[in-house]
Design a protein that fits this description.
10 strands; about 230 residues; about 25% strand; 6-stranded mixed β-sheet; 4-stranded antiparallel β-sheet; alpha/beta; Rossmann fold; single chain; globular
Length: about 230
């Protein structure tokens, strides 16, 4: 058996507020196989987004290990972690996080500005990513000229343009109507099955979770057994 691409062991996260300690995640242990599509569900405040942020390297645990594709990211310094993130993680958020002053092409190109790719190579990567999400004909459009579903597809193109090890998606359909949401879920499924992308998705929506291979529930910082 191949090693899981994500290996989480005894992960604990506590937030401090003044003199108070607020435990958010408690001794989480989780393996995610390569090419898995995992949905994390649970009530608000259960720790879903915190766990997603830890996997993505945008937050740090208080204790435990977090090994992704062979690297224990909990041991990395800030600059090493930022470099690791830029090469290994594609982010998809509920509210797209596109820059309104940039075209679809320029938004998708942003993660490549930190790479050593030539201008020609960057263009080829961006065009390929936009074609994958079905927006090859919208490259010069600004976010305000796109529908919500199209904006989210631009955001997904931005997430995959660096060919990341893992895609993390936080409520990717939460701000969309049903038709647009279904289109985004079909695209996520395609990224998983056709491009073998490992996807970890936080969602409140049982319909969205139904597209995943596996669903895990968090309750008050504990990962429930299936």
């Amino acid at each position: 058996m191949a090693e899981p691409i994500v290996q989480i062991r005894n992960l604990t996260k506590i937030y401090k507020r003044d003199s108070m300690e607020i435990p958010v995640l408690q001794n989480i242990t989780l393996d995610i196989p390569e090419s898995e599509f995992l949905a994390l569900m649970g009530p608000s405040g259960s720790g879903k987004t915190t766990l997603l942020n830890l996997i993505a390297g945008i937050d740090r645990p208080n204790s435990g290990s977090l090994i992704i594709a062979g690297t224990d990211i909990s041991t990395l310094g800030e600059s090493a972690l930022a470099k690791w993130r830029s090469h290994n993680v594609g982010f998809v958020f509920q509210f797209y996080n596109l820059l309104p002053v940039l075209t679809a092409f320029e938004n998708v190109e942003l993660p490549l500005l930190l790479t050593n790719l030539s201008k020609k190579e960057k263009r080829e990567h961006v065009e390929a990513a936009l074609n994958v999400v079905g927006l090859g004909d919208r490259m010069k459009h600004y976010p305000k000229q796109l529908s919500g579903g199209q904006e989210q597809r631009v955001a997904i193109a931005r997430a995959i343009v660096t060919d990341p090890t893992i895609i993390v998606a936080d409520e990717p359909t939460g701000d969309l109507d049903k038709k647009s949401a279904d289109e985004i879920l079909i695209l996520m499924e395609r990224l998983n099955t056709e491009f073998k992308k490992t996807i970890v998705m936080v969602t409140h929506d049982p319909h969205a979770a139904g597209k995943a291979h596996k669903v895990r529930h968090l309750e008050k910082g504990d990962l429930m057994e299936n």
